[in-house]
Amino acid sequence: MKVQFTTAISVMAAATAFMFSCLSKEKVAAGESVDAPISVHAHTGATTSVSAIPKARIYKTSVDCSGFVPVQIDANGKLISFPAPTDITDQSVPLPLAGGYLLDRRGISMNSRFTTWTWREYRALPIAPLADMIKSNLLEGAYVTEVVVLPMTLDEALADTAAVNRLIVSGKLGVADPYTPVVE
């Protein structure tokens, strides 16, 4: 019974990897939904569990928005997600990389827009602004132009930004499968 269950987990992990293996930066740039890049970890032994580990993302914007707080807007222009001022930390600011890319540390998507508030200004707000105030404080012409899912976790990308820069410079973004199953 244990062998069959372990085999089923392995097959499930492989199927998940295959299903998502066709994702590329073109699909992400085209706005197709890939909001949960993961690696599947199947633990075998006395207990079996499956966990998901998000992959790191890098992105480019139409203008330099690295100093401004992002929010999420849906296709109809409705504000769907924004941080509380207390959510903003020094670890929220994106890291600049080669080729004008930024390493995302807040959850950027093709639906992200940028406020006129800097990270420091937003963090200093006594309460979260109302949706109408946020919408009236969006940077004109500032939007995400490209999102690329990396073949590594955010922790791995932060620990070795030189490796991320080598990947960017190599021109092979989107080539590596961002859904690599790892069986431990």
Protein described:
The structure is a single chain. This protein has six helices and nine strands. The protein has one domain. A hairpin with a 5-residue loop joins strand 1 (38-43) and strand 2 (49-61). The chain has helices at residues 2-20, 25-29, 119-124, 131-136, 154-159, 161-170, and strands at 38-43, 49-61, 68-73, 79-81, 95-96, 102-103, 112-118, 138-153, 182-183. It has 184 residues and is of the alpha+beta class. The protein starts with a helix and ends with a strand. Strands 1, 2, 3, 4, 5, 6, 7, 8 and 9 form a nine-stranded mixed sheet that branches.
Q: What would a concise description of this structure say?
A:
This protein has helices at about 1-20, 25-30, 120-125, 130-135, 155-160, 160-170; strands spanning about 40-45, 50-60, 70-75, 80, 95, 100-105, 110-120, 140-155, 180-184. Mean pLDDT is about 80; it is low at about 1-45 and about 175-184. It has six helices and nine strands, in the order H-H-E-E-E-E-E-E-E-H-H-E-H-H-E.
Structural topology:
Layout lengths: L1 H19 L4 H5 L8 E6 L5 E13 L6 E6 L5 E3 L13 E2 L5 E2 L8 E7 H6 L6 H6 L1 E16 H6 L1 H10 L11 E2 L1
Parallel strand pairs: 1-9
Antiparallel strand pairs: 1-2, 2-6, 2-8, 3-4, 3-7, 5-6, 7-8
Name the poorly predicted regions: 1-44, 175-184
What is the helical fraction, as a range of percent?
25-40%
Order of helices and strands: HHEEEEEEEHHEHHE
Number of strands: 9
Shape: globular
Count of domains: 1
Decide which structural class fits the backbone: alpha+beta
